[in-house]
Design brief:
It is a single chain. Helices cover about 45% and strands about 20% of the residues. The chain is of the alpha+beta class. The chain has 5 domains: about 5-195, GAF domain (Beta-Lactamase, 2-Layer Sandwich), CATH 3.30.450.40; about 215-330, PAS domain (Beta-Lactamase, 2-Layer Sandwich), CATH 3.30.450.20; about 330-400, Helix Hairpins, CATH 1.10.287; about 410-555, Heat Shock Protein 90, CATH 3.30.565; about 580-709, Rossmann fold (3-Layer(aba) Sandwich), CATH 3.40.50. The strands form 5 sheets. A 6-stranded antiparallel sheet has the order 3-2-1-6-5-4, with helices on both faces. Strands 8-7-11-10-9 form a 5-stranded antiparallel sheet, sandwiched between helices. The chain has a 5-stranded mixed sheet with strand order 13-15-16-18-17. Helix 21 (about 660-670) links the parallel strand 22 and strand 23 (about 675-680). Helix 1 (about 20-40) packs antiparallel against helix 2, helix 12 packs antiparallel against helix 13 (about 370-400) and helix 14 (about 415-430) runs parallel beside helix 15. Mean pLDDT is about 85; it is low at about 1-10, about 510-515, about 565-575 and about 695-709.
């Protein structure tokens, strides 16, 4: 498509051809064109350009309507950036319209040539839309010129006149000049906008990259291998704690911050990567401005010139201090776990030895032999020890998972501490240790009696275990402001300062001799801390070091002494009960049945749910002790089936199982069990539950408590 160049435009015709009026008009037009050029030069947006064109064009051409439109980025439509001389309704309706719309401005942009219509009749015929807008009896000539950037149409401008009008060569040249000035200004603004947008995008990208690098504790660097200069990003300076611009900017300056033991490793990694034309990654310690040695992972790759010589080394430095500390910790945890497993195996084997020996001895002794009592006592103590180990493991697990439930009530703490101390007095006397008890009266707390006794008992157990003969253990209870304070002091082996800091973590022990003569899993103190925390209290340990004893202090919030429970409920004696044991382990079922028969109860044993159904066909028990892990039907299914029978509506169902988590208790309750007992069961607790008349059992909440473990 051919277009007239600016050099061929006639703005003023030859002087000899003009009348004085024409000459004045031409000078005025030239003056307006100069003003338009100046105004366009200062325009900074497309909207400002459109405003200049229309406001200058309307009076210079004596036109009624002026419009400037730009082609949309998709090349399919026009957007009016300035539209004057029509109603607001018309402006809104024609804000954007297709490039093939039947109006002069769209036709000029679509064809890329000027559109000149001199008469109203021609306008009405070619553009019915204009006739509809202005009325067929109004308006006259219309003109439209494309806005060109080279050979590309970027928009168009147009004017409408009140009457018919013939445009001479000078007026056409003027319109062409205005169009070219407009196009030049639009291109300038668009380029400016594009550059600004590009700079903004670049800045945004840089900000995002900087944020990402800071979040990842990462900084970039570049080393000129020819000039031997090094550049660091602000993020890398921040990692090293160097003020902005404070880095020396040399390789030597960098290596001065690398740990002496790691300098050769870093240098070798870089040199081999350059020689082999590959990436490198190396971990090393660096000195932070605070003086602290931290860890960094350096990654980089060289760039080479046309001759193959390395020119630049670019890379990143990543602060991996936290990761290194974590690795050293998820390793310490593994070490402690391995030690714990070894300790657990040792602690479980220890009681199994005397139990097995005791069983063998019982086979050899005749009934009535006095040594039977000695063997029985040994088996009872070792069984209780194993039960305590399992209970501690379960309790620590429950506390860790937030599954431990407390049965709180208002307690006289002095009663709890005194009774617990008396429980351990015999152990102390056997060890040749004096017990000194000092209890202030009238101190009340809101807590779980069993769990608080467990806390005091664990601390007393440790104090006795780690104290020498002829020493003393002191138990004190006092009130300090609004807190109850329990102090347990011993003159035993003491605790190292480094151990004090981690003493209440699971599997930590102050003493870990190879012979394991004092035993323990390192769970007791972790359990104490967990239970005290659940009572909104605090527990601390003090020691002047090895051989200088230790003191443990429990602090609990006090409460008003209303409805105080001073002692645990007494057991109620009852008559012999009919008991059905559903248990597939023959030894477990037989020993359990023997215990209950000795107490005067009538027993039946079923090894499965089906066997139980057969027994129940002509025998109704008062109590059913049902294992969960049964063949064919599990204990939950058996309970649901039996609970539906009317003849068993007064029978009490106890789940007797090795599954002791909170979810297991919940499932037992949902299945219909009245109580959940975890193996191994405390015989006295079991007897108390079985001996109670059925009507008395209604007061028991169907959940598991510590005594039922």
């Amino acid at each position: 498509m051919a277009h007239r160049t600016e050099s061929s435009i006639l703005l003023i015709p030859p002087t000899q051809e003009m009348s004085p009026g024409q000459y004045t008009s031409a000078l005025e037009r030239l003056s307006r064109l100069q003003a338009l050029t100046a105004a366009l030069a200062s325009a900074m947006t497309s909207a400002q350009i459109g405003k200049v064109i229309v406001e200058e064009g309307l009076p210079s051409l004596n036109a009624e309507i002026g419009v400037v439109a730009l082609v949309t980025p998709d090349g399919k439509s026009l957007n009016n950036i300035q539209f004057e001389g029509v109603s607001q309704e018309t402006q809104d309706a024609w804000a954007t319209y297709p490039l093939d719309s039947p109006v002069p401005v769209a036709e000029a942009a679509l064809r890329g040539v000027p559109i000149i219509v001199s008469t109203r009749a021609e306008r009405n015929a070619r553009y019915p839309v204009l006739a509809a807008v202005h009325g067929p009896e109004h308006g006259g000539a219309v003109v439209a010129y494309p806005l060109l950037s080279g050979t590309t149409v970027i928009g168009s401008l147009g004017f409408c006149f009140a009457d018919d009008r013939v445009f001479d060569e000078v007026e056409r040249s003027y319109l062409q000049t205005v169009a070219q000035q407009c196009a030049t200004a639009v291109v300038r603004v668009q380029h400016y906008d594009a550059r600004i947008a590009s700079e903004e995008r670049l800045l945004k990208t840089q900000n995002i990259l900087s944020l990402a690098m800071r979040s990842g504790r990462m900084g970039s660097w570049s080393r000129d291998l020819v000039q031997e200069t090094v550049w660091w990003s602000p993020e890398l300076e921040e990692i090293f704690g160097v003020p902005s611009g404070g880095f020396a900017g040399t390789e030597a300056g960098f290596f001065a911050l690398v740990h002496p033991d790691d300098q050769k490793t870093v240098a070798a990694a870089v040199e081999s990567a350059i020689a082999e034309r590959r990436d490198y990654a190396v971990e090393f310690r660096f000195r932070h401005s605070s003086g602290e040695w931290r860890w960094m992972e350096g990654r980089g790759r060289a760039e080479y010139d046309d001759t193959g010589a390395p020119r630049t080394l670019n890379g990143v430095g990543i602060d991996i201090t936290d990761r290194k500390h974590a690795e050293e910790a998820l390793r310490e945890a593994d070490r402690r776990k391995d030690e714990f497993i070894a300790m657990l195996a040792h602690e479980l084997r220890n009681p199994l030895g005397p139990i097995r020996n005791g069983v063998h001895i019982l086979r050899q002794l005749a009934p009535g032999d006095e040594r039977i009592a000695l063997v029985r006592g040994t088996i009872e103590r070792q069984t209780a020890h194993m039960s305590r180990i399992v209970d501690d493991l379960l309790d620590v697990s429950r506390i860790t998972r937030g599954k431990l439930l407390l049965k709180k009530e208002v307690l006289d703490l002095g009663v709890v501490v005194r009774e617990t101390a008396e429980d351990y007095r015999q152990d102390a006397e056997k060890a040749g240790i004096r017990f000194d008890v000092s209890i202030s009266e009238g101190i009340y707390v809101h807590g779980d009696r069993t769990r608080l006794a467990q806390c005091v008992g664990n601390l007393l157990h440790n104090a006795i275990k780690f104290s020498p003969t002829d020493s003393a253990v002191t138990i004190e209870l006092s009130k300090e402001e609004t807190a109850a304070v329990i102090r347990i002091t011993d003159a035993g082996i003491g605790i190292e300062a480094k151990v004090l800091a981690i003493l209440f973590q699971p599997f930590v022990q102050a003493q870990q001799e190879l012979d394991r003569s004092r035993g323990g899993l390192g769970l007791g103190l972790a359990l104490v801390k967990g239970l005290v925390d659940l009572h909104a209290g605090n527990v601390t340990a003090r020691s002047d070091g090895p051989g200088k004893g230790a003191q443990f202090i429990i602090t609990l919030p006090t409460t008003a002494p209303s409805h105080v429970s001073t002692s645990a409920p007494n057991k109620l004696a009852g008559q012999g009960q009919r008991v059905l044991i559903i248990e597939d382990n023959e030894d477990s079922a037989a020993t359990l049945a023997l215990m209950l028969e000795i107490e005067g109860h009538e027993l039946r044993i079923a090894s499965s749910g089906r066997a139980a159904f057969e027994i129940l066909a002509d025998w109704r028990p008062d109590v059913i002790l049902c294992d969960i892990g049964l063949p064919e039907m599990d204990g939950y299914a058996v309970c649901r089936e039996l609970k539906s029978r009317l003849e068993l509506r007064s029978t009490k169902f106890y789940a007797l199982t090795g599954y002791g988590q909170e979810d297991d208790v919940r499932r037992a309750v949902e299945a219909g069990f009245d109580f959940h007992l975890t193996k191994p069961v405390d015989p006295e607790r079991l007897m108390a539950l079985v001996q109670r008349p059925a009507s008395k059992l209604q007061s028991f909440s169907p959940v598991k408590d510590r005594a039922a473990n």
